[in-house]
Amino acid sequence: MLFSRIQSLLSSLKTSIWVLSGMTVLYVLGTIFPQGAELQEYAEAGGRYLFLVRALGLLDLFTSPLFLALSGLLCLNLLVCILERFRRMRKRRELISREAFFRSPNLLEIGGKEVFPAVEERLTRWGFKLIDAGQGQYLFGKGLPYWWLSWTYHLGMIAAIGGFLITAFAAHEDTVSLWPGKTEKISLYSSGTRLNRHLRRLGLDVPERRPEREFTITLDGFSTEYYQSLSFDYPEDALSRLAIGLGWRRIEPAHESGLSPKMWKTTFTLGTPEGEQIRGEARVNHPFRYRGLTLYQMGYEQRMTLAVDGEDMEVTVYRPFRVTGVEGRFLAKTVKLGRMIRKDGTIVEIEPRFELFYLAPDGRGEERIGTVHLDRPIRAKGKELLFKGPVVEASVLSYRVDPGVPLIGLSTLLVFLGLLLRSYGYWYRVRIAEREGRLYMTVSTRGLLARREKVTRRLSA
Amino acid sequence: MALEEVLQREAFLLTIEIRLYWVVAILYLAAFIVGLSYLLTGRTAAGRALTAVLWATSVVHTLLIILRTVEGQRPPFQTLYETLSWFAWSATITYLFVQSRWRDIHLPGVIVAAISAGACLYALLTRNPGIVPIPPALQSPWYEWHVVVAFAAYAVFVVSFSVEVVHLALERPDSLRAGLFGLPHGDFHRYTHRLVLLGFPLLTFAIFSGAAWANDAWGRYWSWDPKETWSLITWTVYAMYLHARAVPRWRGRVASMLNMVGFLCMVMTFLGVNWLAKLLNIPSMHTYAV
Fold first, then answer.
1. I need a labelling partner for A144 at 20 to 30 A (CA). Which of A109, A363, B17, B29 fits?
2. pLDDT for the residue numbered A278
3. Residue-level pLDDT, tens digit, chain B, 290 residues
4. Nearest residue on chain A to B272, judged by CA atoms?
5. What distance in Å separates residue A207's CA from the closest CA in chain B?
6. Could you give the strand order of the β-sheet that contains A353-359, starting from the edge strand earlier in sequence?
7. Domain limit, last residue, from B133, B153, B182
8. If we measure between CA atoms, which residue out of A225, A232, A226, A236 comes closest to residue A256?
9. Which residues of A touch B246 (CB under 8 A)?
């Protein structure tokens, strides 16, 4: 009794809506509270309701017990629904009782019983098939199996949640900086995944390393390409913009405003655990994949030599550096290197240069010193800085092993195809029954391509 | 062509484009005003004029979209300036396509015209029209599919929202002369339901293609980035709407409310997330769309 009540509650559409609304509230909270922040950081930034934030895990909401519990409930709801649907679909006899048929609000009289052969012939011509007959009723149908499609995409959703869970527990990722001439190690195995941590807690032996899953990687080349960046002197205020729209002001041609990135590309040699050497290439949006390992082009690091008052020092881009006799620190931004595709289609080699900034002590602000060109000295805070080069570049690749991806891929295919066919396809059921020498019919449809009016009109005619 | 000539040509084309964009915005406003007059007078001629102005606007707007594509030599939906135009255009085209099946139902066009005018004016008054090259993150085979399908879904939801607003506004028999607008009350829910059924798989594809793209670009198919999360919120709310339509007691007012909340979530996904990210200083990986 209790079991059937729970089952009926869990398979109810209302329960689905309530669970989905609960999930929605949590999603919204997840975009308001800074995810991944520490409670102390949150408090220092003026965050409030600390007790609630801590108790509900709002700073790491998408792995919090509250979120996992609600996701579990959603899963359970989906599972009970698809089991219930499966049971009903297997037992289902589509023929309904005569009483129910004649109670239908869409009941239409189509003529005397002698017209049945003509109606049947017409339905057959339109592709309908006789599905069932009995108790003076005939059921014709055509179209996609709407119940099964609906069942399929719900099943796909459970599989997607399963894929998410596999990712959350078993995926691991890391980054590797490839400097020229230096070989790095990357591994398809990590002892730090959630799954391995839990296994260790259970007392199972989880190795720290698995050499048979380790690769080596060496940088062969790294290149950058830029577009010539242009900007218009476009007014900010609405009236001036309106004046341009009305033709009272014209737009001056654009002027060069720097460089915008076009592409970063890394070529490398991958050493497999078996000792094989494989040449590979990774670009943004074009990862390198090999035997479960995926390498992504993320960014790059740069080192160069600067001479400060004649004395050489090595500087890493985006890492503040000190110069003797200067209170604050300096910061070099990206050194622009490589090729530039100009607006007129020509390609030129970029003269190496970077933007230099001065960072006042105690975080009192950032001051732009200027553009520093190769072999051209610049004076800053009483010092002479000379960009001597050479610039050494490291490619930053991230690598990831995610066993959840195949299941996610399959489930998204199930969900999308199921939804697409269910929503856009067509499904018809035409029921015909005779009473007192007259024929009556009802037409049910599903899907956007189904035209109930058309079938009703043509059959009535 | 020398660089100077290229820049002169670009400035010339941009001047024409901006003027054309203003014409489009003014035409949308004109359509809105004609729609208001239809609302006030209830004359069918005014309703037909509203639809006619929207048709004319859509022709000019199509020319604007083509011009921008030629200017940028890439799909015209990279910056917010461009996507607002694309959003208004796709919403209007979708509305006109749907409306062509309704014969004398014109009233939802008032809302569509207002939304499209608002989007165009927002772009013209606050965004920079400069053409920027495609950054590495957007150079993906998924780019065009993801954006076009996402905006197709948005367009359908705009129309669904417009129908729903009109329905709710005219629901009470004493509120307005509903009968004068050729609006059969019983059909409204069927219209909005069919529209959401049309848009929901599109939104699903947009989310899935975004996840596949993220998997190629960042190595993670899902990062709980605010844009991703809000797209999931929008999807969930429309899923709730579709479920509510199957519950006899909720298929009326409750479903209507969910449809409207879904639209607000869609606007939040499209525009509000950037605002929220700025306001709360939340990092977002979708900042190139600003």
1. A109
2. 95
3. 788 888 888 888 999 999 999 999 999 999 999 999 998 888 889 999 999 999 999 999 999 999 999 998 889 999 999 999 999 999 999 999 999 988 778 989 999 999 999 999 999 999 999 888 888 888 898 999 999 999 999 999 999 999 999 888 877 655 555 555 666 666 778 889 999 999 999 999 999 999 999 988 888 899 888 899 999 999 999 999 999 999 989 988 899 999 999 999 999 999 988 887 777 666 666 654 44
4. A31
5. 25
6. A329-332, A353-359, A366-373
7. B133
8. A232
9. 13
Q: Are residues B120 and B163 in the same domain?
A: no
Taken as a whole, chain A contains a residue count of 461
Distance, CA of A444 to CA of A454 (rounded, Å): 12
- Shared domain check, B205 and B115: no
Work out the average pLDDT over A141-150.
Answer: 89
Domain around B86: 1-133
Nearest to A104 by CA among A425, A430, A423: A430
Q: Give the integer Cα–Cα distance in Å for A209 and A187.
A: 8
Measure CA B270 to chain center: 9
Share of chain A above pLDDT 90, in %: 55
Q: Which of A14, A230, A287 sits opposite B247 (nearest CB)?
A: A14
Number of domains in chain B: 2
**Does B218 lie in the same domain as B122?**
no
**What pLDDT, in 10s, does the model give residues A108-124?**
888 888 888 988 999 99
Packing angle of the helix pair A238-245, B108-126 (nearest 10 deg)? 110
> Strand pairing partners for A290?
A293
Pair (B143, B126) in one structural domain: no
Whether the ω angle into residue B75 lies within 30 degrees of 0, i.e. cis, is no
Are B33 and B142 part of one and the same domain? no
Q: Token digits for A235?
A: 């007014």
Nearest to B199, CA basis, from B229, B255, B158, B246: B158
Q: Chains A and B: how many Cβ contacts under 8 Å?
A: 163
Q: Which of A130, A62, A154 is nearest to A411 (CA)?
A: A154
Which residue(s) pair with A46 in the sheet?
none
Residues B188 and B285 in one domain: yes
From chain B, the residues in CB contact with A231 under 8 A are: 130
pLDDT in tens, A166-199: 998 899 999 999 999 999 999 999 999 989 999 9
Distance of alpha carbon B245 from alpha carbon A385, whole angstroms: 70
Q: Which of B139, B226, B250 sits opposite A31 (nearest CB)?
A: B226
A27 closest CB neighbour out of B215, B233, B273: B233
> What is d(CA A358, CA A320) in angstroms, rounded to the nearest whole number?
9
Q: Which of A263, A344, A416 sits opposite B3 (nearest CB)?
A: A344
Q: Searching chain A, which residue's CA lies closest to the CA of residue B16? A: A245
**Residues B100 and B172 both lie in one domain:** no
Alpha helix (H) ranges present in A171-232? 194-201
Query: Residue A361: pLDDT above 90?
Result: no
Cβ neighbours around A127 below 10 Å, total = 11
Residues B141, B129 share a domain: no
Least confident of A75-79, A253-257, A299-303, B77-81: A253-257
Chain A residues with CB under 8 Å of B237 CB are 24
- ipTM over 0.95 threshold: no
Residue B206's closest chain A neighbor by CA?
Answer: A416
pLDDT (average), residues A320-332: 92
Measured between beta carbons, the chain A residues lying within 8 angstroms of B85 are none
Residue A428 CA to residue A106 CA, distance in Å, equals: 14
pTM: 0.89
- Select from B103, B139, B257 the residue whose CB has the most chain A CBs within 10 Å, as the one to mutate to test that interface: B139
How many Å apart are CA A429 and CA A143, to the nearest integer? 9
Å from B91 to nearest chain A CA?
19
Neighbour-count burial of B160, counting CB atoms closer than 10 A to its CB (0-12 exposed, 13-18 middle, 19+ buried): buried
Domain boundary among B67, B99, B133: B133
